[in-house]
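Justification of resources, computational component.

The compute hours requested in this renewal are based largely on the per-chain cost of generating structure records like the one below. Each record pairs the submitted sequence with a full structure-token output. That output is archived, and it is also reused by downstream analysis tasks.
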Amino acid sequence: MSNMEKNGLSENETMEKKTAGVCGLFCPSCSLYIGTKEEPRRLEMLAAKFKMDVKEMMCEGCRSDRVSFYCRSCHFKKCASEKGIEFCGSCDEYPCRKLTEFQGEAPHRAELWKSQEIIKDKGFENWFRERKEYHSCAKCGEINSIYDSSCRKCGNTPSSPFFENHREEIISFL
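The structure output for this chain reads:
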């Protein structure tokens, strides 16, 4: 039994928490997560791009036992654990310099402040539900990677409201 299950969370809530970054990232919209869980070919292509072994790329969520090479050394997860908090927005130092720098490095991090605000004001469960909808195709409901311009299931464009709202930054980044 995991610590989250011991703390009275249901199996579904535990799974959801495992896919929520301390920083406010929504793991189900990550290409590595999608590749690990649903699209092995996507993961193989990413591994080739980064010149890494596929196993090093595999990730089942920021708080899971299997995280990608990039997430293994997550400063925020370690910092939050040391401070006894679940999300950066609960920290007295929020937003810290490291989180501010982290947010500015890539488009998929564009809304970390908004995520932290929702978690703090409406609670984790509401944030998770809102993020799920925000990263899903309006036509078929499939959760897409932040970097997918078209839905990976039905081909609808845009793939999600997030992509539509950050189209220019994402295209420039790619």
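The radius of gyration is 16 Å. The CA atoms of residues 137 and 160 lie 5 Å apart.
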